């Protein structure tokens, strides 16, 4: 999967994303894959929804509260974009990301 993550990072560079996105989104995807403990082809929407709940309950390291809505949104968007990339490049047959993401307030 390291090759796919590297290719996803290169895709973000090619598309002109800022350095923060290029550096963080691949890391967010890696964190998700560690959490899911599953290979990419076996990931489904249940894994993603479970990760969303995990993020919403996870304490922030700096604020003592849970992670902000915008941070959770960024992590989920990274996963969505990566699976979209993997589907477009025929690494997976179907994108398992079915959540409807709403921009945080």
Task: Explain the overall architecture.
With 105 residues, the chain is an all-alpha fold. The chain has one domain (2-88): DNA polymerase, domain 1 (Orthogonal Bundle), CATH 1.10.150. The protein has four helices and no strands. The chain has helices at 2-14, 19-36, 45-57, 69-88. The longest helix is centred in the last third of the chain and has 20 residues, at 69-88. The chain is globular. The termini are far apart. 19% of the residues are buried.
What coarse outline follows from CA principal-axis ratios? globular
Name the structural class.
mainly alpha
Biggest pleated sheet: none
**What's the CATH topology label?**
DNA polymerase, domain 1
Overall CATH class? Mainly Alpha
Sequence of secondary-structure elements: HHHH
What is Rg?
14 Å
How many helices? 4
Question: Strand content of the residues, in percent?
Answer: under 5%
Protein name: Phage integrase, N-terminal SAM-like domain
Organism: Flavobacterium omnivorum
Keywords: DNA-binding
GO molecular function: DNA binding
Q: What are the key terms here?
A:
Integrase_recombinase_N, Phage integrase, N-terminal SAM-like domain, single chain, DNA-binding, 105 residues, globular, DNA binding
Question: What's the layout of helices and strands?
Answer:
Layout: H1 2-14, H2 19-36, H3 45-57, H4 69-88
Helix pairs in contact: 1-2, 2-4
Briefly say what this structure is.
It contains four helices and no strands. The chain starts with a helix and ends in a 17-residue tail after the last helix.
């Amino acid at each position: 999967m390291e090759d796919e993550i590297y290719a996803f990072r290169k895709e973000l560079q090619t598309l002109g994303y800022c350095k923060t996105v290029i550096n963080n989104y691949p890391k967010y995807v890696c964190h998700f894959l560690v959490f899911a403990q599953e290979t990419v082809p076996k990931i489904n929407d249940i894994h993603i929804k479970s990760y969303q709940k995990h993020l919403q309950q996870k304490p922030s390291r700096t604020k003592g509260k849970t992670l902000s809505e915008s941070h959770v949104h960024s992590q989920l968007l990274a996963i969505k974009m990566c699976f979209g990339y993997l589907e477009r490049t025929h690494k997976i047959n179907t994108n398992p990301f079915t959540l409807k993401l709403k921009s945080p307030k």
